[in-house]
Amino acid sequence: MMDNGIKRLVTPAMLHNAKNNIKGDIRLMIVGLVLNMLGMPVIMLGIMTDVGREFSNVRNYSYTDFWEFMSGLSALFMLAAFFCGIGFALGSFRYLYKKQYVDTMLSFPLGRKGRFLSDYFSGLAVYIAQFLPAFIITLIMDIAGHIIYDGRRFTNNCYVFDMQYNVGDECTVFSSLLPRILMFGFGLIVVMAMAYTTAVFVISCTGKSNDNVFTVILFNGLLVGMLIKFPMIACDILDDICSNGILEDRVINFTIPYFSPAGALFYLFYTVLEHAEKRVGSFLLWLPITAAVTAGYAFLTYLVYRRRKAEQTGKPVVFDLFFHALMCMAVSLALFIDLDEFTVIPIIFVAVACFVASVGRSRGFSNLGKDAVAFLVSVVFTAVMYMLSCGVLEAADAYVPPAAAIDRIYMDYGGMNDSNHYYVNTDLFDVDDCTYLPYVSDRESIDIVRKLHRNSAAKGEFRRAYDDDSPYRTLTIVYKLKTGGKVIREYTVYGDELEMLYSIDYALKRDTGPRA
Question: Would you call 245 helix, strand, or coil by DSSP?
């Protein structure tokens, strides 16, 4: 439809199609709405009840235990509501796997682009809409708790999440919870959008209703496995680097929270529940990156959708490339189940599974030869990817930031001279929050640490040749760059290397200011 010579972005046909989709999703939306209302609001109600009990001097621990039980149950309800995204994707794109809806959909005056946009955004809108009321009510409850309780003095000890309040402390429970609620709410919306988009992508690549849910779960599981296993296997191969060099969890943190719905959801829960105050900066970086990745997934899904033909509805797998990609991911994970005890059993198991899938999708043996070649290509691809991962980690381990780019260097090193000895509680050492840790900032000390870094990285496996009785310690080095970034390494330092640190003892300082 043209309006003054300019094609309208949203046409009446698109709105009519979206309206029909929303009508079809109402029942599932009500289910998701109920599940969400049993989630965050119930948890907030438990917190308000617990805090109110402290101020009213009611010591009924069984009452508190009840709300702890309900909090755990509420988390399960929220998880169930999260999985409703698969249902909304199936509802909006049901004509991709149910032949009785194909003719009806094609009768609308919609092009492929308009049909995809109306289907995609109507399903996503309903999916997010089921969560918004619970999110808004939780915010209102937190504001009410702030008005009623914040600023009052505790008469008993109170513990909420990782916030502990003793007798006489001023209550700041609800003002402290506000950033967590906002982080979780906006973060979950982005994760929901990613989960919904990956579900639509898988549905666009398959054509049978009874296979879709299984394939969506399989795809997301394999995606998580790939994002975790590739860095871990590379770390296992380069044990001297990841045991005494790059922190393995830091490597994984650069992949799984940004590219996988399950990984992003875990990152969100972990950040909000455990380290909200320390990781606001990293969360504000994670949010737009994850949203951008989701937009990339949506664009890829549209490209796949545009190439799909109506007559392909009913086929188990619409695109051979998608089937081979799943096979490649499964083979990659099976090849290195356990490097310490390498066994061919997982490979045989995956080969049999791929054989069954090949026969099932073609209803015979017509594609068996092609799929066997794809299986071998998957093995080669896996080997190449692990070699590339190893090369990247080797280069990263050898990298030492230029002295001119370094603002200061934090270390879990308290000094060896009695006159300047800092006690460092390694259990509290957090590479994301270096507050109160010793650091050096003078050029001479920075050069010494950089030299130590180069020596430790260059020795690699030879570090193990030291006698077990020789003095050593594990040292974590955090380079704080002038740009605001960080470079983090961890090494086991022996003998003469350890002596290099003694000369910086008098240059050590303690950071008592804001977080680095």
Answer: coil
